[in-house]
Amino acid sequence: MGRATRTQVPSTPRAGAGRGAGRPFGLAAAALAAVLLAAGCGVGKDAGKDPAAGQRGGTRSPAAGGSGKGAQPSAANPSGAARPDDFNGDGYDDLAAVVEDGTVVIVDGSAKGLDPGRRTVVPRSPDWTSTLGYWPVQLFRADLDSDGFTDLLRVPAMEQMGRPDVLWGGSRGLGAPKPLAGAAKSLTAVGDFDGDGHDDLFLPGGAEGPEGIVWFGPVGRGGEPARTQELKNGHWPDSIPAGAVAGDFDGDKATDLALTFHALDLESEGDGDVQVSGLQYLKGGPGGLKLAERRERPEIGFRGTPADVDGDGTDDLFSARFDPTRKVLGASYWLSTRSGPETGKQDGVSAAPPPGLKAGLHYSGMGGSALGDVTGDGKPDLVTSATGANDNNGVVWLVPNFLEGDASTVQAVTLDSPGVPGSDTPAPGRGPTRNRISVIDLIDTDGDRHLDVVFGSAGFLNPKSRDVDAFWVMRGTDDGVRYQQHFTTADLR
């Protein structure tokens, strides 16, 4: 089976020859972050206080000590180290998702798929503060200390909320969250920027000083990187580093970085108007990141999510969109070559209308997108979702063999699909449904070498909630996806 990897939600999700079997080729971070900002889970008051912490079975708190999503898996890390989605090393991928108040739930994989009876509930850090009324959180996965177990980084989306922390992976699962000492900024990318086989972190800079700092791994349990690199290539005037896209875009096994700069609002109008000032393309390699190209408006580029679309060992860019007015699903890619990003073929798939759409209103709003081998034929399949479709109930689409697929191959799943628990039809006395289903993850939960689609609903239990409160697993098969299981946050209390 072809390699599977995911790109970061803010992902999160090393495509193509990425580390670990069963890794999705790409998970769109921005779209995923929107879904997971304040995902809802009614965690009981005593959750996380089990005296048998770390034991298999039942709700458990993180084991003290212990031996990530949004992590951007790419072609840059081909070593045979930790499976990026398997925290305890048992050979089955585990689900990690953000829920209410920044709480994170981890549900273990097994031979029968995800097992809600074996879960870890990690409350929000008591040191975090927010004036937003919710706690937007990003998850990154990486083997920070190079011990062969994947670790989970939990990062506030805004640095003023607090510092990142780490749940260290081990044979008993994830440990209790520990501060990532010395990381005053919220990290925005994970990769192997010097190509030495160890996972590294990128922490963005501010309006003054370096554009960012690279922490090279292994990172010690006390938060000490092996070494650091300050990027000092020069800001655009009145700008700050505001976004990063990481991937191996030239196939040299070192992660490259595209760093976007946003203009500062010097007039302080407070209108939320943020403009891209420019982009630095930094090539990874021995010694770290080096500036290779500077781009300015209007042709900035780097639109999309990095993943190895054609399986040649270089990361490409892909994206998906839904036009609710014209009822069109569009998915496109721009291939990289050994010459670098955006130097190869551009193509995609368009379906008008795509399957899964019902009569009635449709709205804009995309959910998560991912690329990985669902059908087990070694070719990456696209999974994407539109939360606004079907009167805000949403739809999940599968495009088998994305590189060569067409509109006739697109498959759809909704909560009205046969055999899938739930409904887009309002229950008597309940009012309108707003399920807003969206792709949460693409992982091999049962170890059968087919990636399984995990999607969630922000509003299944409470239509007025913005919080994800229910999950469905669609098992990957040779012919596409088939319903496997469903559980809600009530089952995780």
How big is the Rg?
A: 21 Å
Count every helix, treating DSSP H or I runs of 4 or more residues as helices. 2
Strand order of the largest sheet: 1-22-23-24-25
Major sheet details = 5 strands, antiparallel
Hey, roughly how much beta strand do the residues contain? 25-35%
Structural class: mainly beta
Distance between the first and last residues' Cα? 36 Å
- Average pLDDT confidence is 82
Level of helix content? Answer: under 10%
DSSP, total strands: 29
Global morphology:
globular
Q: Which residues form runs of ≥5 with pLDDT under 50?
A: 1-23, 28-80
Notes on the structure:
It is a single chain. This protein is mostly beta strands and 493 residues long. It has helices at 29-36, 389-392; strands spanning 26-27, 58-60, 95-98, 104-108, 115-122, 137-142, 151-156, 165-167, 178-179, 189-191, 200-204, 212-216, 227-231, 239-247, 256-263, 276-283, 290-296, 305-307, 316-323, 328-334, 346-351, 366-372, 381-386, 395-399, 411-413, 437-443, 452-458, 468-477, 480-488. The strands form seven sheets. A five-stranded antiparallel β-sheet has the order 1-22-23-24-25. The model is unreliable at 1-23 and 28-80 (pLDDT under 50).
List the helices and strands and how they pair.
Layout: E1 26-27, H1 29-36, E2 58-60, E3 95-98, E4 104-108, E5 115-122, E6 137-142, E7 151-156, E8 165-167, E9 178-179, E10 189-191, E11 200-204, E12 212-216, E13 227-231, E14 239-247, E15 256-263, E16 276-283, E17 290-296, E18 305-307, E19 316-323, E20 328-334, E21 346-351, E22 366-372, E23 381-386, H2 389-392, E24 395-399, E25 411-413, E26 437-443, E27 452-458, E28 468-477, E29 480-488
Parallel strand pairs: 2-5
Antiparallel strand pairs: 1-22, 3-4, 4-5, 6-7, 7-8, 8-9, 10-11, 11-12, 12-13, 14-15, 15-16, 16-17, 18-19, 19-20, 20-21, 22-23, 23-24, 24-25, 26-27, 27-28, 28-29
